[in-house]
Amino acid sequence: MTIAQNTNAAGEIAAPLDLLLTNSTKSFASRMVPNASWARFGVSLARQPINVAEQSAGLAKELGLITLGRSDREPARGDKRFADPAWSGNPLLRRIEQAYLASSATAENLYAAADLDWKDAEKVRFALDNIIEGLAPTNNLVLNPQGWKALIDTGGLSALRGFRAFVRDMASKPRVPAMVEPDAFQVGETVATTKGTVVLRTKMFELIQYAPQTKQVHEIPLLMVPPVINKYYIMDIASGRSLIENYVRGGQQVFTISWRNPSARHKDWGFDAYGKAIIEAIDATRTITGAESTNLFATCSGGILASMTAAHLAATGQGDKINSLSFGVTVLDQQQAGFASALTSERAAKAAIRTSANKGYLDGDAMAEMFAWLRPTDLVWRYWVNNYIQGRSPAAFDVLFWNADTTRMTAALHRDMVMMGVGNDLVTPGKATMLGTPVDLGQVTCDAYVVGGIADHICPWQSTYRSAALLGSKNNRYVLSTSGHIASLVNPPGNPKASFRAGQVDADATPEEWLESAEKQRDSWWPDHLQWLAERGGAEIDAPTALGTAGFEPLAPAPGTYVLQG
Prior knowledge:
Layout: H1 7-10, H2 17-23, H3 28-32, H4 36-46, H5 49-67, H6 86-89, H7 91-113, H8 118-134, H9 145-153, H10 157-170, E1 196-201, E2 205-210, E3 216-218, E4 222-225, H11 243-249, E5 254-259, H12 271-289, E6 294-299, H13 301-315, E7 322-328, H14 339-342, H15 346-359, E8 361-362, H16 364-374, H17 376-389, H18 398-404, E9 409-410, H19 411-423, E10 433-434, E11 437-438, E12 447-453, H20 461-469, E13 476-481, E14 499-504, H21 511-517, E15 519-522, H22 526-534, E16 540-542, E17 556-557
Parallel strand pairs: 4-5, 4-6, 6-7, 7-12, 12-13
Antiparallel strand pairs: 1-2, 1-17, 2-5, 3-16, 8-9, 10-11, 13-14, 14-15
């Protein structure tokens, strides 16, 4: 199957914890209603009458030049919305395009001039982005030349297909244009294809052990802890781009947790239940492999749970169960962590908690809607034009298929995550608890490897760096990939444009100071992490000839059954 490479969309679609936790219970329309932040925005501009007058006069002058055909305004490089030749060749469309671009630039200038604190600025930015992007003439059925061309080329069928797609998408959540057809891929056949077997099934998760692909393996296993939002197979998205496959081929004994998609009857699963599940998975990998400890690699929300679990084990004298910790795009320090944190307040948090408590869970489709409107150009309007105006099916892209394969979050975990984020509890030793133990990340002293993405708008890299500095590890390596949220993880070697910076975490240095001193290296960080794991993987032993062991007999081939549940 040919897979479309929509890297712009792929980089922006994963799970921002405090954002989805607090705001996925609110409709998009309610988030666009003018509020106190907009009032302060207006007051700030009112205090700058000269600047506002100059901006208004400048726009009026340019609109006059546009009307006369004398404006030289052009779309920014990389703005593909106006790529069709008609936007530059047709005099009327040319003027409409330039008027839109001039008005957008004026709005951006006024926003930049406003004196707002970072929370107000992020809230206004969200609304402003969606207003500006939504008003683009390319989204207009009557104006977009691509729509007229499709109508002529198909004899009117494009309009019928577009209308049918619109009705289908608006009939149910998340009520945004589909980014991929629901049958574009099949889990276990075209995605999540690395060979393995389920060796443990509990009410909360399945544990998958992967078949070795080398004659010898490292004796200390590697356990992957995926996010509790979306399904685990972003780590096994496709052969050649699979992190799990990469580790298996590198001689690691790889296991992964595949979380169950909870329903209302599982509403009481909170921090303690998920922490207990991670410990159960750790103990199972140790029993199956005969190792005394395991290397843990956790991503996003899975990293939050794994860090708290590691702190609990350290506090109860069981810290040696974890040999090393690796985190991918994980924010433990929520201070000023982007738009998500800007929207998090105790009042909003309690309202969100009440909503999920009434249902028993936080709905995955609501999360998907929130994600889409964070990046409207790439995740909404691109598909509005393609699916509805041109009447075309979206291109098949496996990462977007994974993103659409949503899961729910239990009400208790939602509550625990929200309140932890509001109080930024993990920064203060003892403020959060796991299984009755006060959480002190400074007591987690095993070696650590933390990955962030420099273009990550969901988990800003500065926040992931500060999170790494919370750990008590003496050997604490931070790696900064030149990619966004998902692309920083799905980052196989061989990309000539890829690079990363790596260096020891310095708790006394700011992220920017670390960046100046960190060594830049070419290509992907995957080989660097594989080497790092090999150095902490113990002796090389003969690869097992069978998966599982007594008490952990094979139950089903990978990817298991839980991942198939809707």
